[in-house]
Structure formats: C-alpha cells, structure tokens
Amino acid sequence: MIINQVTFLLLSCLLGWSSALIRPVPGISTLDRDGRTLHRTKRGWMWNSFFLLEEWTGTGKQYVGKLHSDMDTEDGHVKYVLTGDGAGTVFEIDENSGDIHATRRLDREERASYTLSAKAVNKTSGQDLERASEFIIKIHDINDNEPKFAKDTYVASVSEMSNVGAFVMRVTATDADDEAYGNSAKLVYSILQGQPYFSVEPETGIIKTALPNMIRENREHYQVVIQAKDMAGQMGGLSGTATVNITLMDVNNSPPRFPHSTYHLSTPESAEIGSSVGRIKAYDADVGENAEMWFTILDGDGQDVFNIITDGTSQEGVITVKKQLDYESKRLYSLRVQVTNTHIDRRFEHLGPFSDTAMVRITVTDVDEPPLFSRALYIFEVDEDTPAGSSLGTVSARDPDIINHLVKYTIDRHTDLERLFNIDSNNGTISTLQALDRETSKWHNISVLATELSTALQTRVPVFIKVRDVNDNAPEFAMFYETFVCENVRAGQLIQTISAVDTDEPLVGHKFVFSLSTINPNFTIYDNEDNTARILTRRGGFNRREMNSYVLPVVISDNDYPIQSSTSTLTVRVCACDSRGNVQTCSTEALLLSAGLSTGALVAILLCILILLMIVVLFAALRRQKKKEPLIISKEDVRDNVVSYNDEGGGEEDTQAFDIGTLRNPEVIDTNKLRRDIMPEMLFPFRRTSPIKDNTDVRDFINGRLQENDSDPTAPPYDSLATYAYEGNGSLAESLSSLESAATEGDQEFEYLSHWGPQFKKLADMYIGQESQRET
After folding, report:
1. What is the pLDDT of residues 525-540, one digit of tens each?
2. Rounded to whole angstroms, how far apart are CA atoms 145 and 177?
3. What is the residue range of the signal peptide feature (predicted)?
4. Cα separation of 761 and 750, whole Å?
5. Cβ neighbours of residue 691 under 8 Å, at least 6 residues apart?
6. What gap in Å lies between CA 105 and CA 694, rounded to an integer?
7. Can you tell me the distance from the alpha carbon of 527 to that of 520, in angstroms, rounded to the nearest whole number?
8. Structural contact between residues 47 and 67, judged by C-beta atoms closer than 8 angstroms
9. What share of the chain has pLDDT > 90, as a percent?
10. At 19, which helix (H) or strand (E)?
11. 282 vs 251, 319, 340, 352, CA distance in Å?
C-alpha cells in the first residue's frame, strides 16, 4: 500500500510540475478561416491543476507544487500571494519561492477539490506583476472506507417448498470512496453464513434460495450473513457485513391427521338437544388458515341422532345431541367422522389426500327419568253451563325407566286460580268443579303435573280446554239509541234504524228477528232481515206540549236452539224541526222556547241576581265594620297576637285610677303552695297579710269583659281565651311590685333571698351586697 501511494505521489508531482509552468512561445501566429493573422498575447505564466493524495502519512507538511513567474528574476523583488479555498489554513505558499504545501492531512470524502487563486506582486511597490489566475487542487482517493449496509439486521421471508432461485430479498451496501478512481468503491457480495440453503448474487446483492422444497415444519428460521467487499473482492479490499433473518412462510403441504383411529364417548339419556357429548381433535403441522379444518359425519347408525360442529378457535370437532336419547330404546351408537382442510393448495395436491377419518362410538347411560306423557299437549272441549263434576278427558303418563314407578296426577293451581277444574290423582281424569261460561272465557289453559311417587320427579303438560257455545244469551241493542221524531213528521217516515248483538256464537251465524211487544198506534217496526230493523211512524202531528217522549218496547229474538229473546226499550223524543226535518229543539228546552225565553236569557238573569246579592252582603259587612273596630288588629290566629289597649295609665304612682291591690290573689296567702320544679331548702314565713277573699271588683270586671265579647258582632268567629291572674301566683318570690313596699329601702331585709335556691342566687347577691355596703 505504501509503495502504491509513493508511486502515485511521484506521478502527481511530475504532473504538477509539468502543468505548473506552461510557458507560451513568443512570436507565434496563426491564420483564421478568413486568412487573417491572429496574434496571441504573451503571458508570463499559466497552469491548470495540482493533484494531491488524501490521508498523507509522511512527516512534515505535504508538498503540493511550485509556482513561478517569468517576471521573477530571482532577485528577491517578487512575492507570491495565494487566495481561495483553504488558503492560509489548509494550504500555504512560500512568498519568495512559490512552493505550496498542505498543512494537514486531507480527506477526499470530506472535500474532493479546492479552487485557489495565485498572483505575483512586487514587494517594493505592492503592484501586481501579473493578474491573478485560478487553479484547482484535486484530492486523489485511496481505499480508506469500508462498505456499509443501510441496516445491521434485515428481516425477510420466503414460502416453504419454493424452487431453487426463488427471490428472498435484495441487500445493498455503499462505499464512500471515489467510484471513478480505481476499484476502491467497486463492491462484490458474498455469503458468509447460511449455505447451502441460500445464495447471493455478487454484483446485485439479491438473496435467493439455494435448496429446493425446504419444509417449514422441519426448520422455520434461518440466519444468513452477507458480506460486501470493495476492490472488486480482491485481496486487501475492505469489507462490511449484515445479518438477514429469513423465515419460511407456511403453505398447506401437511394434511390433517387423527391421532387415534377410534374414539369412545358417553352421554346420559337426559342430555338436552344441542348439548355437547364430547370433542375429538385432529392435528395439522401447518399453521394459520392452512391448519383450519372441517369435521363431518360420513355415516353410522347415529348419523340422525348426533351432529358434529367445528370449533373455530380450538379446531376441534364437537359432537352434539341432535335427537332425544332413550337408554331403554338404544344404548350404543357408531359414527364415522371425517376431517378435511378448508384451504387446499392445488400445487401440493400430490402430497394428499388432505383429509382423514376416525370411528366414534357413543354409549348412552341410564338416568332416572321423570314420567312421560303420551302427548305433548292435550285439547279438550266442553259445553258451557255443563254441571260441576262433568268429565272433560283423561291425561296419561308413564315411567319410561325399566322399573316402572307409580305416577300421581295433580293440577298446578297457579294455572287454575279460580279452581274450575279437578283431576283424579290415580287415572288422570279431568273434571269441572264449577259451571263454565263461554262469554267469560272461551279457553282455559292449565298445567297438569305427573309425579313419580318413589323419586318425586315431575313432568308437566299443557292442557287446553275449549268452552263450546250454548245459546244461553238473548240478543240486545247493539248500542244506546237517541231517537227523536219531529212534530211535523208524516206517517210512514223513518226515524231510526236499529241493530242487535248477541254474545253467543252460533255455528251458522246470527239471525235476529225484530218485533213490537204490542201494537203501537204511533210507531211500527220493519225487519230488514239483515239483523237490522227500521222504526217508522204510523201517524203525523206529534205535539211535544202534549207528550214530549214515547217509550217503544222492541222484542229481539235469535234463531239458535233454544230460542232466546229479550225486550229492549227505545225512547223516542218529540222535537221541533224545520221544514227540511232538521232538529232545532227538544223536550225541556222546547218548552222554554214556547215561553219566549232562551237559554242565554236565563243565564243572564241568574248572573244579575247573583251580582246583586253579593253587593248587598258586601255593603252590610262594611257598615258593621265601621260601627265598631275589632280588638284583633291582625287577621291571624288570636292565640299568636297581643291585644293592645289605647288607654294610657298613670304608672306606679297612679293609685287613684284603679286600686291594683284588688288584683292580689288571696289564695297565695292562705295556701302554702311549693314549687314542683325545685326542692325547697326551707320553709319561710310569708311577709304580707292576706287580702280580702271576696274581690267583687275583680269578679265584676271579668264578667263585664265576658259579656262584652259575647255580644260583640265584630269579634272573631273562633273561640278566644283571655286569662286574668293575680300577680305573683305560683312563685316563691310572690309579687315584685313596689306599690306596697316600705317607705324607705332601709326597712327592707333581703336575707331570705339566699334561701330560695340557685335560681335566685344572682338576685340575692345583688340586694344582700347593697345592704351590707349601706350598713358599712
């Protein structure tokens, strides 16, 4: 490598020197196409480019080339100046000799060329001896970069059973070296790991299969190492590697197989339809949709009794019950079951067949079963009004087990809340407990229970009882008819069409006959023979003043057996009509019209009378209120108000207006009543003398107030209670009034307050304290 670089350096130096000084020969001229003489201007120097190897490994600065001008006489007056890319940093020039050097190692991958400009300048005057000229320094490449892949690891897949040369994927590496120079960037691909299963094309990097019919079930994953080497793969070239993880994709090349040729299952005879008997499984080495299977029953004596479905999740065949099983009838069944792939690849049919068969034997086990009715449901018919105790029919049930047990019959009373039916517990005969009415209910649905006496197992069966119709209802009017006849009606005029209904339902349909119970001089009836009839007038000239309504009894009969009939009453009102027969007024309203008063006029008169009465009542109430103002100011309950008086008193010193001493309660002195809320500490003497018991003034005052309230018309309408009590009644402190106090405060003694209990402690401290201060 060092020898090649030295040889290339010598070659580049020779090229640089030969191109650095290309001198023109003076005096040479040429002719153009027109014969004119062309003269070339003489230049002192010119050059094109220099070449420099990258990654210089020598000592010192790397020599690039030498610049020299014809104006340089080598007397030291010429200075060379270098400008452009990297001048002064990457490249420097000796201003006296014109030698150019590179100051550091260069990398072509960072920059492939530098454009610079050089000129010769007079050192003394600083003037340019020649104008500047550009030149290029090109960096020559060496093989210093190894190939690199875009990824370190690639993931690829290829179908199993592929032929040799099947495309897997393409990997590509890049080299930062110069592709135009030598073989530094010419890559060759090779496989280091993964043979003999895969191969790679040297020029393109395409990975292909190298072995035919690789089977995923044998090996699914492969790891292949690809190498990219420059210098066209020659010795000494640089290389890079990448790993490719290759997975074989599954194809349907493996048929499903049962692990056993025969399977044994069992199920109880009580298994419900649709319930699972068991599962059988087949194995397929493929995966995904290639391993999906479908189970079917080919033949066998249980083909009509059992079914098989495919569980899409577990890929198992689930055998289910298709018909009700009976241990006493058949105990063993055989099935031939087939399993088949649902997705078959036609390319691999020669590896088939892609199906397998197995035998399944199912044993039915015995279960103690409940009684079994002879029919799934029973329907009985009975005539309505059949006497109680009449037989309707018989239900029958048996024990299906080998050992027959006795069966008892009962009616589920939740289905016969009215207790209309009864059943014989031994033979299952159903009878009526009451007479049935078809018009009330046409059908009765009950449930009959059959119970084994030994095991208490039960079975229920529905029983439908139809009540047949008997002609026991008479026809009647289909609706309520409001019939009227005009006063000016003519004889033979239609006034009403009537129809009838019958709750019975005869087999041939209803046929009603209409007639009048007696001959009527005013009206007649005509049967239309279509279950309707017309009411006609026999005469004209009806007068509502003489008779405002007529009662017409109509007899309606049916045609069933026995014949039923009824008499319905039709009320015909007499009304006033216009000339076209339109009703204007009838009955009471018509009589009012004859008096000349209409309904509107009567309403107006009644309203006026009512308003006048309200005005009179209001006026009387206002006059009574002005006469005397009530004591109760508020309209609320008297118990929540304070009765106030407007008379101002003279205060405590006013002893002339009223003797307050008459209000003193004499019972306080005579009776020593103690408080019930506290325990008295001691009994103390009363300090005042008893007043006169016969207080006539107080009694007269109270009676006067009572009489005044009873006779007051403005008093509230509810009872009121005014309470008058003697001051100090019921209190240990008696009266606190100062009207009868001593003349001076010094005559009073308050020592007794300390014996009244904790309720009067504050008061005792105040007065006893003041007395002690006064004495001091």
Report:
1. 999 989 899 999 998 8
2. 6
3. 1-20
4. 12
5. 661, 662, 664, 666, 669
6. 146
7. 16
8. yes
9. 35
10. helix 2-20
11. 18, 14, 10, 16
